[in-house]
Amino acid sequence: MTDNNRLSVPYNEPVAVECQDVRLTVKKKMILDGISFQIPTGSITGLLGPNGAGKSSLLRILAGLTLPDSGSAQIFGKPSGVDRLGVLSMLPDRANLPGWLTVEQWLGFAQGIYPDWDADKAEQLLLQLSVSTEVLISAMSRGEEARLQLLTCLSRKAPLIMLDEPFTGVDLISRERIASAVVSELADGARTFLIATHDIREMELLFDRLILMGEGKIQGIEDVDTLRRSGKSVESRYREVFA
Amino acid sequence: MEQSYELLPEQFQINPSLPIYEQFVDAIRGRIVTGLIPPGSRLPSVRELAAGRSVNPTTAARTYQELERIGLIVTRRGQGTFVTLEEAVIAEARKTIMRKAVLEFKIIAESLGLSAEQMLNFDKEDSNDRQ
């Protein structure tokens, strides 16, 4: 039972992500207005909020792709930045994979790009997410391409996974497959997930923590178990905050 | 060993407004007590349970911890998790379910201003009338 015990006490583990008073303005518009939170290692945290809340901007700052105006973002105790890209794997919103490659060619390419690429894991995820290898990426449906993007993201050994709207344009069956793949990834080690989404129903059973964001501010940080103990679901809490 | 039973029925509905591991514990306890999951059965791993239901692995781990605490399942190092072979433990879990059901029954009776016995007598008369 050592494995099970370890999973049940994630809050005693070190902090995976920490933001302190992060602020970002773009063209005089306030995008992030003093964001502070922590995510413990091993958590599946949902970053929830309506469109325009600043979720993607926050993820880009954590990934080191955007610099905040002020405040600090840390990944496993060190400031975000290009040198931290090795410890995080991000599925960006509206990403494009090279359409002229087949899946197999793309995976060969990805193996060359990412030093932490796990080819066995990629093989396993191809089956799990039913992605076929001979197809041209440009000929794939949106759901298939989304699954391939997730596969690319999860085939790395990076201890922090950030997914930005993994379900956009994805059909129900693909959503279930994606959710299930995320779970089995988490269960096999001390990986931490931060998932930005407004599709709450598919994901609400997965989250153990919520960060509710609206208008560039934190509107609430919740422990999901505590919510359920008070008779609330993730969805009902979301409605309470944003309705 | 191939699994010949279902840990939870395929159409098991999770209520997202209540702690999920408690719902799992209640359902699995019921299925062990009624023999739907036979004594000695090997249970899926925490990971399989979590992935199969798309729940947080902590939920699955807690479910097993709770079932283990009440003695209905045992973990054998390196072999996996199994339903207990001890009939006394299963009988005790059966009593727990009975106590809970009787308590709920009594609460309803009380809310109607009746005793549990009056409710049972009513049932007897009622079924005689219907025959």
UniProtKB/TrEMBL annotation, chain A:
<keyword id="KW-0067">ATP-binding</keyword>
<feature type="domain" description="ABC transporter">
    <location>
        <begin position="17"/>
        <end position="240"/>
    </location>
</feature>
<protein>
    <submittedName>
        <fullName>ABC transporter</fullName>
    </submittedName>
</protein>
<dbReference type="Pfam" id="PF00005">
    <property type="entry name" value="ABC_tran"/>
</dbReference>
<dbReference type="InterPro" id="IPR003593">
    <property type="entry name" value="AAA+_ATPase"/>
</dbReference>
<dbReference type="InterPro" id="IPR027417">
    <property type="entry name" value="P-loop_NTPase"/>
</dbReference>
<dbReference type="InterPro" id="IPR003439">
    <property type="entry name" value="ABC_transporter-like_ATP-bd"/>
</dbReference>
<keyword id="KW-0547">Nucleotide-binding</keyword>
From TrEMBL, chain B:
<keyword id="KW-0238">DNA-binding</keyword>
<keyword id="KW-0805">Transcription regulation</keyword>
<dbReference type="InterPro" id="IPR036390">
    <property type="entry name" value="WH_DNA-bd_sf"/>
</dbReference>
<protein>
    <recommendedName>
        <fullName>HTH gntR-type domain-containing protein</fullName>
    </recommendedName>
</protein>
<dbReference type="InterPro" id="IPR036388">
    <property type="entry name" value="WH-like_DNA-bd_sf"/>
</dbReference>
<dbReference type="Pfam" id="PF00392">
    <property type="entry name" value="GntR"/>
</dbReference>
<keyword id="KW-0804">Transcription</keyword>
<feature type="domain" description="HTH gntR-type">
    <location>
        <begin position="18"/>
        <end position="86"/>
    </location>
</feature>
<dbReference type="InterPro" id="IPR000524">
    <property type="entry name" value="Tscrpt_reg_HTH_GntR"/>
</dbReference>
